[in-house]
Amino acid sequence: MNEFKKQQTGGASHRVNAALFMVVSAPSGTGKTSICREFLKLCPNIRFSASSTTRPPRPGEKEGVDYFFVSEEAFREQIRKGTFVEWVENYGHYYGTSKEIMQDVLGSGGDLLLDIEPVGAKALKKSCPGGVFVFILPPSLEALKSRLNRRGEIPEVVQKRLGKAMDEIKEIVWYDYVIINEDLQDATDCLRSIYIAEKSRRERLTEKIGPFFE
Ligand code: 5GP
Question: How far is the CA of 107 from the centre of ligand 1 (A)?
C-alpha cells in the first residue's frame, strides 16, 4: 500500500467504498417517485433497489422493477429467513429491503438507489454505514395539505396521512441532504448533483488516485 492509500484508508479497515448507496425519503404526496424515475433515466449507472411489499400493485407498477409483490405469508417467511436488511409495516402493509440486492450490487461496485421511509432508513444507516441520505420536502405545509387533499381520500385519511408526514419530517435532522420539490426538473437536477458530488468525494476515488503516488 502506498503512502496516499495508507493515509486515506488509515491502513485497511476504515474505508469509504467506491460503490455508493443513496436513500431517498419523503412524506407521501411529495413527488418522490417522479423525482426518482427522472433521476434514474438521467443516471443509468445507479440501480433502483426494488423492495418487497405486501401491498397490491398500482396501475403501471411492474413486478421486480418497482417492487416485488408478495403475500403476507411469503413476507413473514422472508423475515424469518433474514432476507431483509430492514423492514417496516406501513399503513397495514409490509415493506422490506433485500440484503442480497444490496450485497450483490454494492459488492460488484455498482451504485444503488433506495426509496425508504425514515424508520427503515434510520435502521439502514445504523447497520450499513456509508450511505447518503436525502430527504425530499414539499415546498410548504400548505402545498403538502393540498396535494394530499387532491388524492381524493376522505378527510380522516387525509388527516392521518398529514400526521404521519409531520412525524416523518421530524426525522429530517439526521439526513445528509434536503431537496425542496418546487419543480420536478429542479428537484431531479438537485438529486443528480448530490449523486455526482458524492461520487467525486476523494475517499471514494482512493483506488483511482493511488497509482499517481506510485
Ligand atoms: P408506497 O406504497 O407509496 O409505494 O410506499 C409507501 C412508503 O413505503 C414510502 O414512504 C416508501 O418510501 C416506503 N418504502 C418502500 N419500500 C420500502 C422498504 O423496503 N423499506 C422501508 N422501510 N420503506 C419502504
Answer: 24
Ordered by start, the domain boundaries in the chain are 20-200
First to last CA, the chain: 9
CA atoms within 13 A on the CB side of 176: 17
Contact 54/94 with Cβ under 8 angstroms?
yes
Distance 28 CA to ligand 1 centre (A): 10
For residue range 61-111, list pLDDT tens digits in order. Answer: 999 999 999 999 999 999 999 999 999 999 899 999 999 999 999 999 999
**Which architecture characterizes domain 20-200 according to CATH?**
3-Layer(aba) Sandwich (3.40)
State pTM to two decimals: 0.92
pLDDT in tens, 105-153: 999 999 999 999 999 999 999 999 889 999 999 999 999 988 888 777 7
pLDDT at position 16 is 62
> Going by DSSP bridges, is the β-strand pair 177-180/93-98 parallel, antiparallel, or unpaired?
unpaired
Average pLDDT of the segment spanning 154-170: 91
26 CA distance to ligand 1 middle (Å): 10
Ligand 1, from 116, 125, 126, 164: best to mutate by most atoms within 8 Å of Cβ?
116
CA distance to 82, 117, 128, 146, 159, per residue, from 124 (Å): 14, 11, 5, 31, 29
- Distance between CA atoms of residues 46 and 111, nearest Å: 5
Q: What is the pLDDT of residues 48-60, one digit of tens each?
A: 999 999 999 999 9
What type of residue is 79?
Answer: I
